[in-house]
Amino acid sequence: MIDELLEMFEGYLRSQGLQARGSQIIDATLVPVPKQRNTREENKEIKAGRLPEGWDENQDRLQQKDLDARWTRKNGISYYGCKNSICIDVDHGFIRRYAVTPANIHDSQMLPRLLDPENEHDYVWADSAYSGECFEDLLNLGGFESLIHEKGARNHPLSNAAKELNRVKSSIRACVEHVFGSMIMSMGGKLTSKIGPERNEAWWGLKNLIFNFLRFLQRSDHVAVVA
């Protein structure tokens, strides 16, 4: 149902001349969920894809257990939850595609699901988490042109020219950070009390849709003021 609503609003945007264009920016944000108070053995079973012993005997308790959220580390800090990965168009800043995954799924794995073939322009901006020869090949195969940040490696740091090019790319890529910032500042933040992948995906699907509603109203107000 949520996918249908997103597609309906996408059709409305196109009818208003706000189709995806100007190329696309892809990024992901960590979404914290309530931490689970499990034993070490229970967590081991969950990570292995098995239901801990005795959990299926109490359905009320089981409904309060998140079997899909995972821990991950970013910049030396541990996070528990999931990720909301999105694709926005550069010209209008609407979320055109999204994917909700456990937090331990690497950002780059969602690239095939997030690429928007309906965008009128071919460039793709993303940070260095999406860099790699296989992803460059994927973009070429799909007819896209990569503006993904370059990434240094051990004993092979980025050159000054590559660092400067990354800074230039950041001036465009930063637009996606404004989306996540708006969710934090104006839409109640990122923390969700929902448990389980279906509820979290539904919640973030609706939140992404509501962002698009607000973005449309913001653009409409701006046009009215200018007029």
How would you describe the overall organization of this protein?
It is a single chain. The chain contains seven helices and six strands; from the N terminus they run αβααβββαβαβαα. It has helices at residues 2-15, 40-47, 59-62, 111-114, 133-141, 160-186, 197-226; strands spanning 24-32, 70-74, 77-89, 95-102, 123-126, 145-148. Strands 1, 2, 3, 4, 5 and 6 form a six-stranded mixed β-sheet that branches. α1 (2-15) packs parallel to α7 (197-226). It is globular.
Range of strand content = 15-25%
Taking the alpha carbons of the first and last residues, their distance comes to: 37 Å
Tertiary shape: globular
SSE ordering: HEHHEEEHEHEHH
Provide mean pLDDT, rounded.
86
For the secondary structure, the number of strands is 6
**Uncertain runs:** none
- How many helices? The count is 7
Radius of gyration: 20 Å
- Largest sheet composition: 6 strands, mixed
> Which structural class do the helices and strands define?
alpha/beta
Helical percentage:
40-55%
In short:
The chain has 227 residues and is α/β, with parallel strands linked by helices. The protein contains seven helices and six strands, in the order αβααβββαβαβαα.
